[in-house]
Amino acid sequence: HRRFKNRTWEIDLKVERPEKKPPFLKGELKNISSRLQVLGNGNVMKLNVWLSPDAAEPFPFIIEGDSVDAGGTLAIKTIEKHNISVDYTIKELARVEQVFDTRTIPVKRVENFTLGYKSDRNFSQPLKMAKFSEALIPKDAMPEENDTTSVQNFSQNKLARRRYLDVTDQVRRMPLSLVLLTDQAYMKDILEALVNIELRFQTTQVHWNRFHGTLNYGVNQAGATSPSNNREDQFSANLLEVSIYGIVSFFERVPDDAKVKDKK
Known about the structure:
By secondary structure, the protein is mainly β. The protein is about 10% helix and about 35% strand.
């Protein structure tokens, strides 16, 4: 018996071991957010439950239901799929993971991702090439920055060679832009996640608009009554089209000879 919690849900799980019957998982689901929450496509939420700390495969726990009001609790209906087969070793309720679908996932869709795209904050700064790109171009054939027709301005993978705001022997700093669709409740989490990536993301500009398009949820399960897109979903959260501009840093590898000198 154990209780788990994330930013939206709290679930109380228990393994029941009836006599002459297979053990099964039961529980109660509580919405701890400040707004109504849907369970997922086909009116189903799926959880991966690890029944042992060293288990390789989790037990798939299915919760049936439409939605849960803010602060509300759902008594999980016991179904046959909750029976735990002999393939699983039951030691403890070690870990629980929610499986997102297109109806519940925080980032619904990535609309655009562009390398070397400057925000208003650094729009006047010229873009530069990395030194390894400059070495591939003869000095007398170096194209102008705004020359979009010269093949010399693009790599063999069709990437613009001039995509850095700053280039030194230690680091290259590249601007980029990202446009995505998300529930407004998750925008703060997305911005925090970007700041914490290994590339040292520096946010320079953010703006958002209300999304008025249609977002398909995919094919419903057989017999399900849940909507197939956000236009049909009466519980659909407010969707935003968020544009994020930032700068990421690529740190150069320290040359082997420099490491030797440093040791001396």
